[in-house]
Amino acid sequence: MLQTEGIVDLHIHSAPDIRERRLNDLELMEAAVRMKVRSIVIKSHNVPTMDRATLVNIVCKDRHPDSDFQMFGGIALNQSVGGLNPFAVEKALKLGAKIVWLPTNTAANHYKKSQKSGGVEVVQDGKVVKELLPILNLIKEYNAVFETGHISAEECFYVVEVARNAGVQKIVITHPEFHIVGMTLEQQKRIVKDYDVLLEREYAQPIGGGVYKKNLPDNVIAMREIGCEHFIVSTDSGQMQNPPWYESIVEYINYLSDAGFTQEEIDMMTKVNPSKMLDIL
Q1: Distance between CA 66 and CA 145 in Å, rounded?
Q2: Could you give the 3-state DSSP secondary structure of residue 231?
């Protein structure tokens, strides 16, 4: 059995994109089918991706009728879609979006950490901005996944509490280890304990100057400290500086195995938890 058989990756960047990417949507699909992957979610900082995923699935069914692979997409609430825009969210969800990410590279927090002003505000004066509330209601209505994007660790607590109170069921903290988010291990423990969220830990992160740092050693520490049942393994792959997705996901799984995690624990993080988020378990 392939070690990638049945896995789900909720976070991959593919072409077409403004930034050069390792693989396009169709190349990604072909690799996933070859590796017997169950599902992947393609993500863009600039445009919704669920319509692209729908077309890829049509092509996949034609080329690989015996495969159960599915590609999904979502929408990141960056400036290019109007920021916290409920109209864009509603249309995306109606078209099959599975994930709604809070602002990523145009989040006010991302701008601030990059020594820039502006960006999309999510929390002001210790309160979630009112523009987020109808979006949370839509996410609840469509039972979509709510991801925190590139907001700060502190902002995550404000946002998650409001989301839980609004009845949102599926909440994922996007790469808490990413220096832009900057969530400490203690904060990760607390947000899991207080709000029963999942932590999505990625393969690598940019550290400046086009250089990426692998997150794998730190990921292992967090998984052992907090428990595998609270994690999702994703790659956040697609950058030209990192290996192609089909190599990074295999390296990630091998690293977890070599670190002593059981197959049941690895399956929890690569199959069970992300499949629940997509309702494909």
Answers
A1: 28
A2: strand
Tens-digit pLDDT profile for residues 16-75: 999 999 999 999 999 999 999 999 999 999 999 999 999 999 999 999 999 999 999 999
Q: How many Cα neighbours within 13 Å face the side chain of 225? A: 16
Residue 186 is encoded by which pair of tokens?
A: 């203690």
The dihedral over CA atoms of 250, 253, 258, 261, expressed in degrees to the nearest 10, equals -170
Q: Alpha-carbon distance 89 to 111, whole Å?
A: 23
Taken in order 167, 103, 57, 272, is the CA torsion positive or negative? negative
pLDDT at 1: 63
Q: Which tokens sit at 222? A: 């967090």
In the chain, count H helices and then E strands.
11, 13
Paired residues of 123 in beta bridges: 128
Alpha helix ranges (H) inside the chain: 25-34, 50-63, 86-94, 108-113, 132-142, 153-165, 185-195, 216-226, 245-258, 263-267, 273-278
- The encoded tokens of residue 44 equal 């863009």
Contact 83, 120 (CB under 8 A): yes
Q: For 214-254, how does the pLDDT look when each residue is reduced to its tens digit (9 = 90+)?
A: 999 999 999 999 999 999 999 999 999 999 999 999 999 99
Res 74: pLDDT? 99
Tokens 């593919």: give the residue. Answer: 14
Nearest Cα to Cα of residue 194 among 226, 146, 233, 228 = 226
Is the distance from CB of 243 to CB of 28 less than 8 angstroms?
A: no
